[in-house]
Amino acid sequence: MFQRLREDIALILQRDPAARSAWEVLTCYPGLHALWMHRRAHWLWQRGFRWLARWVSHWGRWLTGIEIHPGAKIGRKVFIDHGMGIVIGEMAEIGEGCTIYQGVTLGGTSLVKGAKRHPTLGPGVIVGANACVLGGFTVGANARIGSGAVVTKPVPAGATAVGNPARIIEAESDQAREEAAARMGFSAYGVTQGDDPVARAMRGLIDSASGHDHQIALLWNAVCKLSAELGRPVADCVPCDAQRDEAFDAAEMSRLVK
């Protein structure tokens, strides 16, 4: 019991830069209090004391503003930040290391008793403020749900879901675009992921510029290799001011996007 308590406090001190001491966390963090009360309610629920479990859960909601059904399964090292307005349904499952912010709903869309109505969050999932995850599907490990998103279908591991209804952003393509944009001097995450035509054009420009730059570098490698085989200096084959590696003009790109 005390080991779990120390683990919970250490976790909050690690993840929340506003936490200044263990005593502050112990006395002033409603997310921590809600998890403690849920563990007691869940223990009662599993042993058939259903009304008593709901009564403990109800008091937890009254004290913390966080409503967790006693039937929900919550793993270790789960961090509930702020927490006000969170609702977690009976059949929800939250994996180890998840982070949940205020106003989140892990709810259901089915009225069939006994069916899996609420979502399962894999390990390391982050759910942003006021997001709604509705249905008996799985959100894959290390996925991210953006603030205000409404998710009604499975999210692959490592992907990001944003918007209403939520759109799935695959991690690999998103990371590649971010790396290309970083070389241009700005962040691709600053570009909205919606259907705005300017945003779509910007994403296309980033992908196109990245591809052209890579092709130029490949051509230069081929020219240098051929020149070496012929025993001629590279400068005799191509202009001295030609681009010889992958490099973007950050100042020019910044001017274009203003």
Automatic annotation (TrEMBL):
Pfam hit, one: Hexapep
Single GO molecular function: serine O-acetyltransferase activity
Reactions accelerated catalytically: L-serine + acetyl-CoA = O-acetyl-L-serine + CoA
InterPro entries on file: Hexapep, LbH_SAT, Ser_AcTrfase_N_sf, Ser_O-AcTrfase, Serine_acetyltransferase, Trimer_LpxA-like_sf
Keywords, comma-separated and alphabetical: Acyltransferase, Amino-acid biosynthesis, Transferase
EC number assigned by the record: 2.3.1.30
Main EC class the enzyme belongs to: transferase
UniProt family annotation: Belongs to the transferase hexapeptide repeat family.
NCBIfam families: cysE (TIGR01172), EPS_EpsC (NF041874)
PANTHER family linked to this entry: SERINE ACETYLTRANSFERASE
Record-given protein name: serine O-acetyltransferase
Source organism of this protein record: Pelomonas cellulosilytica
Gene expressing this chain: cysE
